[in-house]
Amino acid sequence: MTTMTKTEDTPAPTGPEAFLSVRDLRVRFSTEDGIVNAVDGLSFDVERGKTLGIVGESGSGKSVTNLTVLGLHNPKTSAVDGSIRLDGQELTDAPEKELEKLRGNKVAMIFQDPLTALSPYYTVGRQIAEPFMKHTGASKKQAKARAIEMLDKVGIPQPALRFNDYPHQFSGGMRQRAMIAMALICNPDLLIADEPTTALDVTVQAQILDLLKDLQQEFGSAIIFITHDLGVIANMADDLLVMYAGRAVERGSVREVLTAPQHPYTWGLLSSMPRLGGDIDEALTPIPGSPPSLLNPPSGCPFHPRCTFTDKVEDSRCSGERPQLAEGRAAACHLTSQQKQTIFIDQIKPRLG
């Protein structure tokens, strides 16, 4: 792995250094069919005590980005370039032993499917207690007491008894709560939640989201919340990053992006969602086409083959020139600011109600 120096295409952070700062991150996988550009020049910041939401379709690079932050990619089949700085420490060239000290301690992850993330051979309590012993040097007795405390904190009834249960004895919602307890047992400064409510029913999903917000207030952790559900992100995040084909296409505060989106892909995501209080028979507006192959991504703007507004851009810039994402509130699109505003007000906003 190599660390890239800042270039004109790698925007520098503005203001105080963020707790997590990612600059020009590129992740490539070698496959039998060729090189997959899973993440292609991604930059973002996460501040202490804040939540960054990352949204996009499957295959947009959301999970790969955050696994790379944790150093969980396979160095034999992948190449990573760019800069990942956690609390001022560069991670892209950090040795594995240093990364092991950070995982589960300074930074932790809640995986999408707790049934596969938890080992079926060990009790839930033992799996929660293990990182606490590893990172703090606590005894088994101390770690058990801490694990029971965390099970209670995340709402598991009779935590002292459930400590000895195996994952298959927990419901889906309880397994997810156990994963959250494991992630938070060492009070991490950064928590990465990779679609943590995907497999849960709506009631349990709401409970888990409320739990994460309450625990964030208690521990002061920064959170990266990965999802494809804009409805969930509206209630969870402070800032929002929209990804497409391994790149960031729009970013800003949640309020800015969801109330005044500037990129045609974001318009498509919002238009394809059912409206709260809308007509039950109301037709949704899907995004035409399919996401591009990352083995052979399109030239220019990666979204242009699916975009219905390319005719408003002159000189075929959409297919020939890749738009850049500026710092701060921005969208990587060749449409002018006036065109974006006019299209949104006249065509998109009426769909959203």
From TrEMBL:
<keyword id="KW-0067">ATP-binding</keyword>
<protein>
    <submittedName>
        <fullName>ABC transporter ATP-binding protein</fullName>
    </submittedName>
</protein>
<feature type="domain" description="ABC transporter">
    <location>
        <begin position="22"/>
        <end position="270"/>
    </location>
</feature>
<dbReference type="Pfam" id="PF00005">
    <property type="entry name" value="ABC_tran"/>
</dbReference>
<comment type="similarity">
    <text>Belongs to the ABC transporter superfamily.</text>
</comment>
<keyword id="KW-0472">Membrane</keyword>
<dbReference type="InterPro" id="IPR003439">
    <property type="entry name" value="ABC_transporter-like_ATP-bd"/>
</dbReference>
<dbReference type="Pfam" id="PF08352">
    <property type="entry name" value="oligo_HPY"/>
</dbReference>
<dbReference type="InterPro" id="IPR027417">
    <property type="entry name" value="P-loop_NTPase"/>
</dbReference>
<keyword id="KW-0813">Transport</keyword>
<dbReference type="InterPro" id="IPR003593">
    <property type="entry name" value="AAA+_ATPase"/>
</dbReference>
<keyword id="KW-0547">Nucleotide-binding</keyword>
<dbReference type="GO" id="GO:0005524">
    <property type="term" value="F:ATP binding"/>
</dbReference>
<dbReference type="InterPro" id="IPR017871">
    <property type="entry name" value="ABC_transporter-like_CS"/>
</dbReference>
<dbReference type="InterPro" id="IPR050388">
    <property type="entry name" value="ABC_Ni/Peptide_Import"/>
</dbReference>
<dbReference type="InterPro" id="IPR013563">
    <property type="entry name" value="Oligopep_ABC_C"/>
</dbReference>
<keyword id="KW-1003">Cell membrane</keyword>
